[in-house]
Amino acid sequence: MDSLYIVVPCYNEEEVLHETTKRLTDKIDRMIAGELISQDSRIMYVDDGSKDKTWQLIEELHGQEPRVLGVKLSRNRGHQNALLAGLMTAKDLCDVTISMDADLQDDIEVLDEFVRKYQEGCDIVYGVRNNRDMDTGFKRNTAQAFYKLLKFFGVDAVYNHADYRLMSKRALEGLAEFGEVNLFLRGIVPQIGYKTATVEYSRGERFAGESKYPLKKMVSFAFDGITSFSVKPIRMITTVGLVIFLVSLIMLVYSLVVNAMGHTQAGWTSMMMSIWLLGGLQLMAIGIIGEYVGKAYMETKKRPKYIIETVLRDE
Question: Which residues are in the Glycosyltransferase 2-like domain (predicted)?
Answer without folding.
Answer: 6-173
